[in-house]
């Protein structure tokens, strides 16, 4: 009997994606693994249990996670899920770690070997494993579809006997994978597209897709990209110049889509309340960074907000999950491609090479310790919060509030917070 791979149904009710497909199940079975898929895991991604069974999986229940040597997930395991995993199990998922020190500590305490798929290095060998790119690509597409659904006019220019319908003016802010796909999708739908980004390398990419590029092209702009291809955080001075340039442009747009994210940091604010107020009634803004605080002032996570001047600000959560059937197929392939590099073909079992560059980049916890350099120091100093006494959890409604005694100002303490790790 071979080792077991378990694919659970995601516990978050808003998550429709699944970490396997019939194709990856078939491949795992061919490598000698016993694959168990929790009943209903693929339902929201239009993959019925029967399809997984035909591919060679057994249909099981959540408790089967305790048998697994490998667990493939979409989202970070919850504390309840961790209790069901056996020590030493390898867990591959998108971990969403920054600002979640307690979750990192919990995974180490559970004794699992956790891999954060979003830390996959952007190198040629790892392109097929890059979950950020595969999911961002679909998010960029879906952002345009969501914008078109909220926009009450046609996107392409239409010349008819009754008159001409003008093309929608669409502005994409942030030209990473999501931004490029948003440009391509908006262009296919007939919109007139402009785009901006702080990285000079994307200018040609924007123009190659038929859009116009807008940016403050000074010396800081020329050095605004990290070795990994991400945008650097720009100075306050540059941000002010860029804001002045884009403010007038935004006022003329029908649709604005923002995609700017910096790994490990809050999303930069790109669109102010004043810019929103300058837009025409019926205009639409889609904020793809809303889960990290948002690029748009006034955006609300999980909601579509209509401002006083009639502008809709779309703040959908988990945008790739809104197109789960497609997102799951790509995500499953990402996970399988990485897992395959850790399988010994001769013994048909998991054999993690801890010196491999992909393992070093993504391994978060191992043998009861936090091993990723970005989180190891924080884990050493992390302490679980003390339990709250039961008597303090419910206030006595009949008690009269006591006047607080005057306190002397406490001496300022030095912050123990480390610098950003992005």
UniProtKB/TrEMBL annotation:
GO terms for molecular function: oxidoreductase activity. Keywords: NAD, NADP, Nucleotide-binding, Oxidoreductase, Translocase. CDD domains: Rubrum_tdh. It holds the Pfam family AlaDh_PNT_N. Residues 407-422 have a biased composition (Low complexity). It catalyses: NAD(+) + NADPH + H(+)(in) = NADH + NADP(+) + H(+)(out). Residues 398-422 are annotated as: Disordered. Its EC number is 7.1.1.1. Gene3D superfamilies: NAD(P)-binding Rossmann-like Domain. Residues 6-139 form the Alanine dehydrogenase/pyridine nucleotide transhydrogenase N-terminal domain. Residues 148-315 form the Alanine dehydrogenase/pyridine nucleotide transhydrogenase NAD(H)-binding domain. It is an enzyme of class 7 (translocase). The transhydrogenation between NADH and NADP is coupled to respiration and ATP hydrolysis and functions as a proton pump across the membrane. Belongs to the AlaDH/PNT family. This is proton-translocating NAD(P)(+) transhydrogenase. It comes from Ollibium composti. The lineage of its organism: Bacteria, Pseudomonadati, Pseudomonadota, Alphaproteobacteria, Hyphomicrobiales.
């Amino acid at each position: 009997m071979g080792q077991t791979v378990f694919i659970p149904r995601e516990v978050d009710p808003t998550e429709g994606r699944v970490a396997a497909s019939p194709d990856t199940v078939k491949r795992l079975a061919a490598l000698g693994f016993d694959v168990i898929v929790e009943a209903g895991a693929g339902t929201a991604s239009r993959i019925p249990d029967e399809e997984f069974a035909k591919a060679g999986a057994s249909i099981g229940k959540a408790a089967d996670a305790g048998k697994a040597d490998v667990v493939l997930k979409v989202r970070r395991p919850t504390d309840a899920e961790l209790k069901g995993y056996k020590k030493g199990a390898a867990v591959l998922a998108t971990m969403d770690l920054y600002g979640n020190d307690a979750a990192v500590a919990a995974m180490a305490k559970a004794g699992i070997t956790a891999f954060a798929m979003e830390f996959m290095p952007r190198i040629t060998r790892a392109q097929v494993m890059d979950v950020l790119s595969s999911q961002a690509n679909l998010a960029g597409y879906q952002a345009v579809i969501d914008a078109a659904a909220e926009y009450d006019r046609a996107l392409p220019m239409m010349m008819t006997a009754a008159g001409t319908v003008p093309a929608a003016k669409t502005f994409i802010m942030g030209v990473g994978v999501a931004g490029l796909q948003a440009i391509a999708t908006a262009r296919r739908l007939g919109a007139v597209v402009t785009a901006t980004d702080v990285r000079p390398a994307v200018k040609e990419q924007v123009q190659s897709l038929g859009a116009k590029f807008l940016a403050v092209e000074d010396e800081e702009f020329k050095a605004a990209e990290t070795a990994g291809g991400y945008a650097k955080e720009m100075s306050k001075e540059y941000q002010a110049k860029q804001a002045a340039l884009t403010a007038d442009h935004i006022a003329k747009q029908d649709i604005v889509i923002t995609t700017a994210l910096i790994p490990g940091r809050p999303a930069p604010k790109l669109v102010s309340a004043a810019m929103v107020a300058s837009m025409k009634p019926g205009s639409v803004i889609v904020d793809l960074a809303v889960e990290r605080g948002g690029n748009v002032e006034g955006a609300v996570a999980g909601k579509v907000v209509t401002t006083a001047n009639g502008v809709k600000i779309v703040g959908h959560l988990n945008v790739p999950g809104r197109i789960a059937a497609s997102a799951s197929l790509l995500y499953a392939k990402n996970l399988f491609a990485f897992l395959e590099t850790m399988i010994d073909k001769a013994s048909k079992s998991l054999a993690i090479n801890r010196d491999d560059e992909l393992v070093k980049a993504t391994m978060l916890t191992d043998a009861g310790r936090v091993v990723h350099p970005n989180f190891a120091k924080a884990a050493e100093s992390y302490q679980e919060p003390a339990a709250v006494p039961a008597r303090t959890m419910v206030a006595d409604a009949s008690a009269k509030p006591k006047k607080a005694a005057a306190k002397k100002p406490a001496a300022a303490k030095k912050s123990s917070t480390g610098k950003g790790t992005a």
